[in-house]
């Protein structure tokens, strides 16, 4: 599929969605939203896929909304409508994909750029990358799920400081705070990302999907509900070929060959 603002490719069970407006630090304009949505359509329809990489070209990961698209000299803009139309569906789609998602943050992530990364299952970042909740600098509220993820992931005190002060957070600090999975030395970044992708693409896909759904549901469930969800998920996972393969491989003392079925 050919796009203008993203690069999208599929192969070996892996979809790679690469933001490609490096001159704007990969800020989102309407076309990029539409092209990302089309790429996600393709991901959802392709049953051969077992992992998604979200990454970006150039020195930035994503600077959030493209502010050159916002004409603030006319009447007031309806940003409720733009977030409902573009960012909210994107966050919901990323979160509910049935394959594991890996976000590789190779440079600065700002505004919605941070929060879209947080919608992915695993986030890694170059040590040189940084994260900025840039909303406070332009009088906005963290959107694209930011106000949802931050207190859950890093606690209210840090969420408030990070958001209200607008200070940038280094990748190491983001890792220490539990905002991301891992900060990786720049020299090893590409190979570690590829290794993680290969691991995810070779994993028992349905089991991973059930696991991520359960962990994401925990924030809104009681213990009773969560225990029942685990049992229902285990019922489904116990019927997969990958479960059978995992147990068989264990007994035969060999590496499992998961197929995602
Ligand atoms: O509008 C709605 O629908 C509501 C939804 C909002 C979602 C949001 O994401 S709101 C938040 C929007 N984002 C920002 O406010 C971030 C703005 N950018 C920055 O604060 C800084 O650029 C960074 C901290 C991200 C990086 O700083 P730095 O010094 O490394 O780079 P720079 O020189 O500022 O930027 C490099 C270029 O990218 C520059 O272009 P130029 O001068 O070289 O032609 C800059 O204008 C451009 N750029 C960076 N961010 C944006 C952008 N262009 C358009 N929109 C941007 N968000």
Characteristic terms for this protein:
single chain, 261 residues, alpha/beta, Lyase 2-enoyl-coa Hydratase, Chain  A, domain 2, 2 domains, six-stranded mixed β-sheet, four-stranded mixed β-sheet, 10 helices, 46% helix, binds ligand T3D
Structure notes:
- The chain is α/β, with parallel strands linked by helices and 261 residues long.
- The protein folds into two domains: 6-201, 2-enoyl-CoA Hydratase, Chain A, domain 1 (Alpha-Beta Complex); 205-252, Lyase 2-enoyl-coa Hydratase, Chain  A, domain 2, CATH 1.10.12.
- The chain is 46% helix and 16% strand.
- The protein has ten helices and ten strands.
- The strands form two sheets. Strands 1-2-3-5-7-10 form a six-stranded mixed beta sheet, with helices on both faces. The protein has a four-stranded mixed beta sheet with strand order 4-6-8-9.
- Helix 1 (30-45) packs parallel to helix 2 (79-96), helix 4 crosses helix 5 (156-165) and helix 8 (205-217) runs antiparallel to helix 9.
- The longest helix is centred in the middle third of the chain and has 18 residues, at 79-96.
- It is globular.
- The mean pLDDT is 97.
- Bound molecules: ligand T3D.
């Amino acid at each position: 599929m050919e796009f203008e603002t993203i690069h999208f490719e599929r192969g070996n069970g892996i979809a790679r969605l690469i933001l490609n407006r490096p001159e704007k630090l990969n800020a989102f304009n309407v076309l990029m939203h539409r092209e990302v949505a089309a790429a996600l359509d393709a991901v959802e329809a392709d049953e051969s896929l077992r992992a998604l990489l979200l990454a970006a070209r150039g020195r930035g990961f994503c600077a959030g909304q493209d502010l050159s698209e916002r004409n603030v000299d006319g009447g007031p803009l309806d940003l409720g409508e733009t977030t409902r139309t573009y960012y909210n569906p994107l966050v919901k789609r990323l979160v509910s994909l049935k394959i594991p998602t890996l976000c590789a943050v190779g440079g600065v992530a700002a505004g919605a750029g941070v929060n879209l990364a947080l919608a992915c299952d695993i986030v890694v970042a170059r040590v040189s990358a940084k994260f900025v909740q840039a909303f406070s600098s332009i009088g906005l509220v963290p959107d694209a799920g930011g106000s949802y993820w931050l207190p859950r992931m890093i606690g209210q005190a840090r969420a408030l400081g990070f958001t209200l002060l607008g200070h940038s957070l280094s990748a190491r600090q983001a890792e220490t705070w539990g905002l991301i999975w891992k900060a990786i030395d720049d020299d090893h970044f590409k190979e570690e990302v590829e290794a993680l992708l290969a691991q995810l693409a070779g994993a028992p896909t349905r089991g991973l999907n059930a696991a991520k759904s359960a962990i994401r549901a925990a924030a809104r469930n009681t213990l009773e509900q969560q225990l029942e969800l685990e049992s229902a998920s285990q019922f489904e996972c116990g019927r997969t070929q990958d479960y059978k393969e995992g147990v068989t491989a264990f007994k035969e003392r060999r590496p499992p060959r998961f197929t995602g079925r």
